[in-house]
Amino acid sequence: MEVKIPLxxxxxxxxxxxxxxxxxxxxxxxxxxxxxxxxxxxxASYVGAKRAVACQSGTAGLHLALLEAGVKPxxxxxxPALSFIASANxxxxxxxxxxxxxxxxxxxxxxxxxxxxxxxxxxRRAGGLYESLSGRRIAAIEAVHIxxxxxxxxxISKTAADFSLPLIEDACEALGSRWExxxxxxxxxxTVGDIGVYSFNGNKIITTGGGxxxxxxxxxxxxxxxxxxxxxxxxxxxxxxxxIGYNYRLTNLQAAVGIAQLERLEEFIETKKRNYELYxxxxxxLLPFREGTRPNYWFYSHPTGSLERxxxxxxxxxxxxxxxxxxxxLLNTLKPYxxxxxxxxxxxxxxxxxxxxxxxxxxxxxxxxRECARALREAERVMA
Length: 384
Ligand SMILES: *Cc1c(COP(=O)(O)O)cnc(C)c1O
Fold this sequence. Notes:
The chain is an alpha/beta fold and about 375 residues long. About 35% of the residues lie in helices and about 15% in strands. The protein has helices at about 15-25, 35-45, 60-70, 90-95, 110-120, 155-160, 220-230, 250-260, 265-280, 305-320, 345-355, 365-384, and strands at about 55, 75-80, 95-100, 120-125, 130, 140-145, 165-170, 180, 195-200, 210-215, 295, 300-305, 325, 340-345, 355-360.
């Protein structure tokens, strides 16, 4: 059966076409143009950062973040086992190795195991923290806010500080998520660690087709990432380069779409929240978002209980044209990463087998959400 209700599709009914038209008629389509800096300012002000740097994708942003954090070939970066592979790949782009860490029941990086690992499996030497087993320097910690749910950044940032490790937030899925109580109250995903990265890929909460944004606590470092993203031109007239740069800059066309999307971000979050609550009201169990936060409700996670049930539900819904998706395979089990260290991955496999993501696009009407919920409950009844 063809897909009638897709899992997650963009919503482009704002000023996207109008602003794109202005790019084309003004002939500012590439990596210079007024919309790029306008989007940077608008996003920085939205998340409460001083400044932001636009880039070509979340993956490119994470690569720049790791380079800026000082990740060198042969070193190690702590990353979650349960995430999209783009959380880990930039480590390899730097010639470094991921060390895979378990999740807690928020699906995000387990702060207790993280601390335990730093305390028991590493040693402090001149120059930093070293993994005892491999002798590799731990160059950074990367926390990911899975599905828009905030990681326990209070605990994670304490560990990062105690061991003097740079902390990078992969906030690719979490633009707009913020703390509403506790020590981080009022802070947005991406602005707690040293560097935060957002994605504007097609299925993210706002999209530019492809794109991303970087924020950082240290403005000099942020500006250096901007420099690296634009081919590291030391002299823009004579083409003098003293470092290896990248062609990672967002284009004005993409930024135009981004501005129109950002204007609607709060509306998207309201819709996602409303539909999340509607699924619950219709009797569908969904994993909660962290208490004391205002998440962006990007993806809805239905815990099916087992791999077998998950696969059956997915097939039953597909028969009705409803597209669902299992959570990612654990990164430490994937071919490129099988040889890497994975520290006590115990909870992630359970969630990995159980979680099914349900349709969550912002253009879903209440009627369609009810249809998905009814189809799911019906499929579960048949299986019981
Ligand atoms: C989407 C995503 C990325 C990568 O972003 P792109 O813009 O697609 O490169 C990285 N990490 C996570 C957790 C993501 O969901």
